[in-house]
Amino acid sequence: xxxxxxxxxxxxxxxxxxxxxxxxxxxxxxxxxxxxxxxxxxxxxxxxxxxxxxxxxxxxxxxxxxxxxxxxxxxxxxxxxxxxxxxxxxxxxxxxxxxxxxxxxxxxxxxxxxxxxxxxxxxxxxxxxxxxxxxxxxxxxxxxxxxxxxxxxxxxxxxxxxxxxxxxxxxxxxxxxxxxxxxxxxxxxxxxxxxxxxxxxxxxxxxxxxxxxxxxxxxxxxxxxxxxxxxxxxxxxxxxxxxxxxxxxxxxxxxxxxxxxxxxxxxxxxxxxxxxxxxxxxxxxxxxxxxxxxxxxxxxxxxxxxxxxxxxxxx
Length: 315
Known about the structure:
- This protein is α/β, with parallel strands linked by helices.
- The chain has 2 domains: 127 residues; 135 residues, Glutaredoxin (3-Layer(aba) Sandwich), CATH 3.40.30.
- It is 45% helix and 11% strand.
- The chain has 12 helices and 7 strands.
- A 7-stranded mixed β-sheet has the order 2-1-5-4-3-6-7.
- Helix 6 runs antiparallel to helix 7 and helix 6 packs parallel to helix 8.
- The longest helix has 18 residues.
- It is globular.
């Protein structure tokens, strides 16, 4: 690839007319790129993963983390995607892992297209494994990329015969979805931010989320804070493949159903989507935030957050 760039530079008349200095400059720029500098896919993936991990946690905005992970991916991984047929099968899997990490961090839809190319190449070689299909399907789901889950997709096997989700077209900001019983379709709704007092970021697979629900069942005060028409529980924009987990949760916790957020970007005030996180709202804007659910619970922190924000902690 670098030789081709140099040849292209040499073919430009202006470069030839000005002598070797522009050629040397072009060559220096080419040699400074990751591939020429010897940055392997493993190293590029390690940089992506390290960037993601260093910016995780409630002190870092997920959008800034995503932007920095995007830059790390573009610098250390993207150059290797030019010709997938030249990559070894192990390198294709490293590329898929790097793409998965970047997609989880930034939610950018173009990662689904990159992953799909990798999946097609692995399948063509007869090397597609179940773990590859799960990773690719996860990227497609969190990217809301229905085209990547078409019947010919290499990722379909990840659903093990379960229905493949069909997402509604997002029409308004603050949209969220309620999955059908089989997890194949959704009913869309929109959060009326001005009428809500609290949004809980939660997920049925999160043990701390389950601890919150158990505390609400045991303590009427906690239940009053977290339920009712002025409370909304939202799952992050993730790659959950079996969406029946949400309907199962709703059956067990009818007062605390968890909805699936359509796009995290719509909720501009929410910089952290770790579960559980509690956003206390006043006039549609975040007035306070409580993160986590320690062993002893966080009831006191929630009550204080409501009090400090001047909001009654009642439905």
